[in-house]
Amino acid sequence: MEREDVIAQLKDIINYNNSRLTIDERNLLSIAYKNLTANLRASWRTIDALQKKEALSSTRQQVKLMRVQKDQIEKDLDKLCRDVVDLLEKYLIPAASDGEEKVFYSKMRGDYYRYLAELTRLNSREELGKTSLEAYKFAYRHALATLPPTHPTRLGLALNFAVYFHDIMRSPERACHLAKHAFDEAVTAASADKNATLANLEDSLMILQLMRDDLILWRGELSKDPN
After folding, report:
1. Which of 58, 110, 140, 180 shows a CA-CA span of 20 to 30 A to 69?
2. Which residue numbers delimit the 14-3-3 domain (predicted)?
3. 3-class SS of residue 124
4. pLDDT per residue over 63-83, tens digit each?
């Protein structure tokens, strides 16, 4: 089944079920939108890199074709992000129960506003970046109040919030601070929980590995910064 078909079916379920999804349906929705946007963002990066690499050797026709293709990708990505944001703001977040469900959807809202903020030729980076920040802040406050430090949704939120500070705010310092705090809290909590098993922590461990990799990368950037 095509991802677009999955999204269409899940929208029908949302309409017929008072804006509520099961955990499996919610994950399907997240994965479908994530895969579609990831493909578009990867295509955009490929064309952007090609434009820079071949800038001097490309013909006018090649430059024009790359520009047209890049414009279409940006429009498709903008439409897709606004579609999921509309779904989240009108239906899913207002109907979500407190705790993991509300954190999950609020994190998604922050993510897709972050993607919109990256499309600077179509949108106001400052305005959308501010909306993304507000969404992440709301989600993170709620996560701290309702979810344990080792919960994969809380850790995934912390990781993406840190990416926001790095990519949108251009602040590796703040990115490192947030990621390290979440990382240290999770490790401490896991060490203190005698009932924790590798199976229960599998998803969390994967996110912690990604967080550790980003921390190494961002700290490397800070060490090279003369300021």
Report:
1. 110
2. 2-227
3. coil
4. 888 889 999 999 999 999 999
CA distance 58 to 64: 10
Q: Can you read off the two tokens belonging to residue 183? A: 């990382």
Cα 38 versus chain centre, distance? 10
1-124 folds as Delta-Endotoxin; domain 1 (1.20.190)
Residues 50, 213, 40, CA angle at the centre, nearest 5°? 35
- What SS3 string covers 1-32? CCHHHHHHHHHHHHHHCCCCCCHHHHHHHHHH
pTM for the full predicted model: 0.90
How do residues 107-116 score in pLDDT, each as one tens digit?
999 999 999 9
